[in-house]
Amino acid sequence: MARGLLADDYLAYHNILTYIEDATAQLLRYRADIQAKIDVNKFFASYFTCLKEGKHAIFREFEFINSTPYNRACFVDTFHKCFAALGKKGDLLAIRDYYALVSVLCSDFPYEMLQKTAKIVLIDDAHDCLISFTDFLYSFQLQLYYQEFLEASSNTYQSLLTESHSPRDIVVPTDHTTQVHKEKQLPSNSTLTATEGVDSMKFYKSLSQLIDKYRFSIPSLATLKEILSASPTTTFYGFLVALSKSEAINSGIGRLPASTNIFDGVESSSLLKVQSVTIPTSKPKKNLQKVIKNLQLFKKI
């Protein structure tokens, strides 16, 4: 997609200036902290090597993580590498417990993002329901990486849903007068539930217009069409679930392994030392504190 771009467009597409500014800020902060001479070339080489390897998004503020699509993808990948050992054991956690883990890697990460992730898995905002690591991971990736697209898609879906319930006038001729009847009543917003549906192809055509209207990460039209062609009508919840489980979506983002290989190479210890921690589904929060303690010790290294 980036091929054939002009120099300025290429820099913007890859957010190069964002990283140069961040590297410069990190250099100045580091030099002020250690009060010593720094090899600038070596520092920048180290920064961009870390960036290329995707190891730059850990223990950073949310503003930085959220600033580029690449940062978002790398943050989810880091989460996977840190906690895959927990998922391999089959532990189930509530969304608040996942938030506690995410917060160790990014202290100011917004809880709202995790609430939206839970709604992809559970349809309702059920804080106490337990979620598998795999379901959470790919739903979390979808919500974080495509957050603007999902919001625009939700607005588009609601517009189509409301439009499909809008009353239309029908003229019924009689002997003496002309009566105007409503074809159907417009239900209240509370009745426009997730069980309603819209025409899939009409939804697809509306989504295709977002590519030109917005400048944010968006799934390929081919993938969207494939997902929405599976049924003549679709609900927004069904659409989100299909996106989160799509290998084409995951491959397009390009950081996480396929869902069938999510635990390949994962041993009893992962990037962080969590091998001695067990999180039974009956008492996740108590044992979760041990995980966080180990992570905090790692953070100081």
From TrEMBL:
Primary localisation category: cytoplasm
Keywords recorded for this protein, A-Z: Cytoplasm, Cytoskeleton, Microtubule, Phosphoprotein
Location of this chain's protein in the cell: Cytoplasm, Cytoskeleton, Microtubule organizing center, Centrosome, Centriolar satellite
Naturally occurring in which organism (per UniProt): Bugula neritina (Brown bryozoan)
Entry keyword Phosphoprotein: yes
Purpose of the protein: Regulator of the tubulin polyglutamylase complex (TPGC) that controls cytoskeletal organization, nuclear shape, and cilium disassembly by balancing microtubule and actin assembly. Regulates the assembly and stability of the TPGC and thereby modulates polyglutamylation of the microtubule, which antagonizes MAP4 binding.
Similarity section: Belongs to the CSTPP1 family.
PANTHER family named among the record's database cross-references: CENTRIOLAR SATELLITE-ASSOCIATED TUBULIN POLYGLUTAMYLASE COMPLEX REGULATOR 1, UPF0705 PROTEIN C11ORF49
A single Gene Ontology CC term: microtubule
Protein name: Centriolar satellite-associated tubulin polyglutamylase complex regulator 1
